[in-house]
Amino acid sequence: MELLPAVSVIIPARNASKYLRQCLSSIASVEYPRHLVEVIVADNGSTDDTAEIATQFGAAVVDASGLKVGAVRNLGAAHARGDVLAFTDSDIVVGTTWIVSAVEALGVVGVGAVGGVCRAPETGTWVEKAWTTCSCDSMRKTNCLAGSNFVIGRELFKKLGGFDETIVVAEDDDLSRKIISQELILLNVPGCAVTHLGYPATLGALAMRQVLFGGTVVPCPLALFEAMTLLAVTFYLSLIVLLVALVTGQYGKCLISLMMLFLVPLIVAAKKATKGNEFYNNIYHLCMLWPIYFFYFLGKSLRFTKYAVEKSKALVN
């Protein structure tokens, strides 16, 4: 019988007491030999009882104060002993087959990393539920894995230099691109599906999350031409043109801008709605996704503005 690898579960956390108990409890219930699983909580300067909760569950706590999320994840990995690194977040509840399914999938030739879909809790709001897509019933390739559900071998992780420590968000997108550049594939695995407890519950919260955390630093030049980046920039420019046209009375441009502000969220909503949703049918799902992505891009636009103001102030000073 082939020996199972040791697995290190790495959880970045900051003031995570709201959900951390549920997260750690779910990890303690996975169907995998207990002595082969270690849990590391990389604590990014919490002022609540995050560290105490982690210790109660037997997790190792690493001080990761003042670091960006990529560096927090990397610091946790640096303290890990496992041959497999399983990254998740403090607001995630994993299923019992999460680790064993990931380990099995990593054994497939040509696979670089694996993960699974993120579901919303059944008690979630319509905004939370609309984010989710149907669980896949078989392994399938994907172009990107979420940092909240990202399982990779230690050697490949080290070879690629881990997560980018210089960017605010999208460190998972960046690592996904690095893996694909090695001619390896990313897999979504049914048994690796998780439940995300921390989805924004309202449209306002969704927009504010983008303002606060939707970073503007592009990790590589190619990312400038990715669809979501282009759509975010298109929405932002359309919003600026609309405001200028309203002030100057150019109502023809107003109409064009309004059309773009309508179409950009619709494009993304339509694409996501085709993937299915476990709570709603496709048409109903599409109708809910449009306002969600409108507020998503609105938040991105506010973030772009905030970033530009901050840079301007820095140049002046």
UniProtKB/TrEMBL annotation:
Keyword Iron among record annotations: no
The organism's place on the tree of life at top rank: Bacteria
Localisation per UniProt entry: Cell membrane
Positions of the Glycosyltransferase 2-like domain: 8-126
Pfam families assigned: Glycos_transf_2 (PF00535)
TM regions (residue ranges): 227-247, 254-270, 282-299
UniProt xrefs under Gene3D superfamilies: Spore Coat Polysaccharide Biosynthesis Protein SpsA, Chain A
Keywords for the protein's UniProt record, in alphabetical order: Cell membrane, Glycosyltransferase, Membrane, Transferase, Transmembrane, Transmembrane helix
UniProt name for this protein: Glycosyltransferase
Upper taxonomic lineage: Bacteria, Pseudomonadati, Thermodesulfobacteriota, Desulfuromonadia, Geobacterales
